[in-house]
Amino acid sequence: MTTTVPGAPAVAAGAALDRVVAACRAMLDAGGPVPAAELERVTAVSPRQLTRDFAAVVGVGPRAFGHAVRTGRARDLLRAHGQVTDAVFAAGFGSTRAFYETAGPTLGMEPRRYARGGAGQALRWTAVGTDLGTVVAVAGDLGLTAVRIGDDVEALLAEVRAELPAASFERDDDGLVDLAAGLRALAAGGVPERALPLDLHGTAFQARVWDALRRIPAGRTRSYTEVAAEIGSPTAVRAVASACARNPVALVVPCHRVIRGDGTMGGYRWGLAVKERLLARERDAAAGHGPASDG
């Protein structure tokens, strides 16, 4: 006679969730997909079983989740789920509390608010003229949430509005004058009088990359491989490059200081000419010649 243990289905569901969370954490740490053999070691189940677990818990397979991590789609996963609890597990965190403790500072605003497109968030913006182009700065309650470089103010601002469609935007040149001065100094290769506060939005992996970029001294460069090694994910070179490309605050998080291993410039969202000019100005300032004039 077979005896049914009360609560057995719940235990099985919990075990599946634990396996998915462990696999998600492995991919978040790696910055992208992880070989099936490594996931099998981490979860102690076959790839077929883990795929079934992922389908039940996340709605996509392990490899698809890994690619989402690599391409920085954690924010898309937040938007795709109806409740934050679902997004917690889709993002690879073991509990709602762990998500708020880890992702809250990373996302800048409360994750539930971000999942609603920034609903209720009042953002202020200003435009700063530099000879690199116009720098559009958008700030939330905690600090800068977006810095864009270009020639078309409305187009740059539209990018930020598209990311946070439910937030309100108001131009505030007077209120952001100190931030504007700091950005102007950075554009000239110098250093702001005060550290510029940040209110960033990104995945846990992206936050690690952006933090590493801010530790690169002005006038110096690092390769994508060196940054990957510094954050403890030496195989995640392509994911590091992706995080650099998705840097939301140009100049302040200096993705322009990351180049290819062979010494060539690599890519830069705002144009290679801007990248080269920034690096040249920072090298001059570091050599004691002072920042280049910005006018």
- Please count the helical segments: 14
Shape: globular
| Portion in strands | 5-15%
- Major beta-sheet overview: 4 strands, mixed
Model regions low in confidence, pLDDT < 50 over at least 5 residues: 1-12, 81-85, 87-107
Rg from Cα: 21 Å
The overall pLDDT, averaged over residues, is 78
Distance between termini?
A: 87 Å
What share of residues is helical? 40-55%
Class per helix and strand makeup? alpha/beta
Number of strands: 6
Q: What would you call the quaternary organization?
A: single chain
Element string (H = helix, E = strand): HHHHHHHHEEEHEHHEHHEH
Q: Looking across the biggest beta sheet, what order are the strands in? A: 3-2-1-4
Descriptive overview:
Helix 1 runs parallel beside helix 4. A hairpin with a 2-residue loop joins strand 1 and strand 2. This protein is of the alpha/beta class and 295 residues long. The protein has a four-stranded mixed β-sheet with strand order 3-2-1-4. A two-stranded parallel ribbon has the order 5-6.
List keywords for this structure.
two-stranded parallel sheet; disordered N terminus; 11% strand; four-stranded mixed beta sheet; alpha/beta; 295 residues
